[in-house]
serine-type D-Ala-D-Ala carboxypeptidase
Amino acid sequence: MKKLQTTNLFAILFMIVFAVVFAILFSRLMYIQASGEVDGVDLNRWAEKQRTASYTLPAERGQILDRSGMVLADNRPSYNLYAVIDEDYSQNSDEPLHVKNPDKTANKLAPVLDMEARRIMELIQNGKEKGLFQIEFGSNGEELTEKQKEEIEALDLPGIYFQENQKRYYPNDKFASHVIGFTQKEEQEKLKGAMGIEKSMNDQLMGEDGHISYEQDQYANKLLDPNEVLTQPKDGSNVYLTLDQKIQTFLEDAMSDINEQYKPKQMMAIVMNPKTGEVLAMSNRPTFNPNTRNNIDNWYNDIISYPFAPGSTMKIFTVGAAMDAGVYNGNEKYQSGSYKFMDGVRPVNDHNWGEGWGKITYDEGIRRSSNVAVSKLVWEKLGTEKFLEYLKRFDFDKKTGIDLSGEVAGEITYKWPSDKVRTAFGQSTTVTPIQLMKAATSVANDGKMMKPYVISKITDKNQDKVLKETKPEVVGEPIKKETAKRVRDILETVITGENGTGADYRLDDYSVAGKTGTAQLPDPENGGFLTGRENYIFSFLGMAPKDDPELMMYVAIKQPELENTEAGSEPVSYIFKSVMENSLHYLDISPDKKTEEMTVDPIKLSDYKGQSVESVKQTLTDQNVQVKVVGNGDKVKETIPQAGENILPESDIMILTNGDAQMPDLTGWSLREVLKFASFYDLKVEQMGNGYVTKQSTEPGTKVKEGSYLSVKLKPPNDGENEEPESENDGESQEDNENEEEAQEETG
């Protein structure tokens, strides 16, 4: 009985404890059901959060385009590959949605991904062992192209999926790469500009990401009532540049030719519209392909980031200051050769080892690039303080403010008397190429100095609305209109004068005003300056047509590999002439050089349509006319020039026949002849160089298709052959000798 009572007592106690616990739990459950909270956590919200998937909807990065709308930077889809290996994902599906056959999948993917099948099998098996839902394939499965995606889709492998990403693409490869720049992936796979316009305009280009959230089941399928919330992305803006694709192409091609032939350490070139400040072309060497970004040797845009003592191009502004101040008399004579402007200071020597040319006028001194001439102008005529005032008027003491990241200003070195004098001919003081170009706009633009810029406008993604547009800006008038004209006049004689240093820079159809320059290079090991005929930066700053310049260009080439018969001006002049001549023609600028007066009677061209090709050819040949036959027909369809026009003996005429139009052998044709031929068949001509045709893109005898493209490469007569050696016209040392080290400081 006692044992039974004890058992009953424990049973009662157990029942009481159970009842109390049950009451507590039931009360808690009722409370949770009534309030929907646990420890202050709203269970409804917690469950909703667990069911809700949230994704970023990336904004599309804006395009970068040239002035005409040609795309320079765009977006391309790239794909990351992943494989679903969880079998539960295929529930309620007639077709397998996961990787059903790992061995087959590995063997078929391996050649496309350039992976070993064994490695793919390991990834799948390891993922299954760890209970993963999906696996990825490392770098081999990232940034796949559209072609690779299509190849994989054609394999029809269950469980293989793609995630689409945005990749920046530059369709022209090395085209203006330092200007356009490139992007890199930052956090969350976001593209961010790392150089050039991509960097400086990153905020405008990148836009604002959107978001989407919805409730889903454990297999990532939307619920019937997903409570979807969607915020649409705001795509980035489009940025239009002032660059002109055609002119930039002229520049890139010419620089590539010179880079291959002369292998210089560095090259810089820029083409501007001096009336507006628009940069139409800009390029550097070394360069890089922004799509691959392999082996980038130079992360800086040297045109805006490389200050150096420019040499004699600085004389443009020294002469301009003296003329504007009223102290320049071009007919006044001075003693050239050497100038000891101050006791205890090494004298200034002219570039021909201080020998000079006797007593000459200042005008001749400028043509000859005399260091003594400009030194005397500053020290005796203008005064060093007045010269400093003009240097600041030309803004050589500040950045240009160009809308590119990374600009660095040069420095006016003006501490000692020798600094002040040597600044007159481009030593001591440093400037960047863009500072030179900005200052030179005042010479080309009748005294008005323009701010350089490369961003033309910013539009919305659909190009329906212009968000911002850059207008030309006058930032100073350092010299008067009359002074600018006088400077251009004397700079023209540098090109055309009997003793001018710029004879190599003459254009066929346009007058040029410009100045050569030769910058010394510091010797980092021994101090002082490097010696040797190649150890300079050879340069030229020119504008054309002279009376009303439409284009202005600066070219600088550092340490080209020259043959014994070659001058430093040769690679520089090749770039300047080919780019400037072609660009002016492309812009339809009327030539300003006067043609020679007719000294023979013209021939009025008869109407030869329908006549025999052979008889017409003989008739014209008898009249001393050069005949070119185009096509394989036997009857004349048309002549170029057409009937009724006047031609001169020795002129060229084309006979177009009634047969199929065939591409003639253009070798030896002038550009004018090529353009005449192309105009008849509406061909789009791209020319490289100047002179006469040496290569053509369409083979002779090929049927001519109207509206197609024709590329021709031209070279001057005897170009590259045994030409008579020329002196280095800007005062470059003509030979290495024992006095070279002393003469380095005086190089023009």
Q: What stands out?
A: Residues 595-599, 718-748 have pLDDT under 50 and may be disordered. The chain has 21 helices and 33 strands. The first strand starts at residue 37 and ends at 38.
